[in-house]
Amino acid sequence: MTDSNSEIQHEGLGHVVPVSTLLAVFAALIVLTYITVFVSTLDVGRWSLWVALAVATAKGSLVVLYFMHLRYDSPFNAFIFATALVFLGLFLGIVLLDSIEYQPDIEMFLRNQG
Q1: pLDDT reported for residue 11
Q2: 99 with 73: CB under 8 angstroms?
Q3: pLDDT tens digits, 45-73
Q4: Per-residue pLDDT averaged across 38-51, rounded?
Q5: Quick check: 107 and 68 in contact, CB under 8 A?
Q6: Model confidence band, residue 107 (pLDDT cutoffs 50, 70, 90)
Q7: Domain extents for the chain?
Q8: How many other CB atoms are found less than 10 A from the CB of residue 61?
Q9: What are the CA-CA distances from residue 95 to residues 14, 70, 92, 98, 100 (Å)?
Q10: What SS3 class is residue 89?
Q11: Is the distance from CB of 69 to CB of 17 less than 8 angstroms?
């Protein structure tokens, strides 16, 4: 389909996001990056990993929602994304539980090495 200026119309192929929205998301990503760096300098014990994962999840979600236009896509794709996040969290939780189980053995090994 062409208009009077002979330009091709692509109806329904994309969503135009205002530059102000993209700049706001970019600013949020910069702030979250600073939070990641700041938390890495702190010793918050066992919470370091969880804070890093939460910030990474927030940053990844912003990228997917706005730069990959998932926010404006069909709800089914948002459901798939949310389901993938839940399963990723479940997988990481199981892996972390397993690594915590063997932590005393690792510490004993490291003491014997030094």
Answers
A1: 59
A2: no
A3: 878 888 888 899 899 999 999 988 888 88
A4: 84
A5: no
A6: confident
A7: 16-73, 74-114
A8: 15
A9: 38, 29, 5, 5, 9
A10: helix
A11: yes
- Residue 52 in tokens: 């890093």
> Of 48, 33, 32, nearest to 96 (Cα)?
48
Cβ proximity of 55 and 36 under 8 Å = yes
Report d(CA 99, CA 88) in Å as an integer.
16
**Do 66 and 25 meet the contact criterion of CB atoms below 8 Å apart?**
yes
CB hemisphere CA count around 63 (13 angstroms): 9
What share of the chain has pLDDT > 70, as a percent? 87
Rounded-to-integer distance, Cα 3 and Cα 105, Å: 71
Residue 4 token pair: 């009077």
| CB of 39 closer than 8 Å to CB of 51 | yes
Q: Could you tell me the pTM of the whole model?
A: 0.69
Helix, strand, or coil here: 2?
Answer: strand
Confidence at residue 9, expressed as pLDDT on a 0 to 100 scale: 57
Cβ atoms of 32 and 59 within 8 Å: the answer is yes
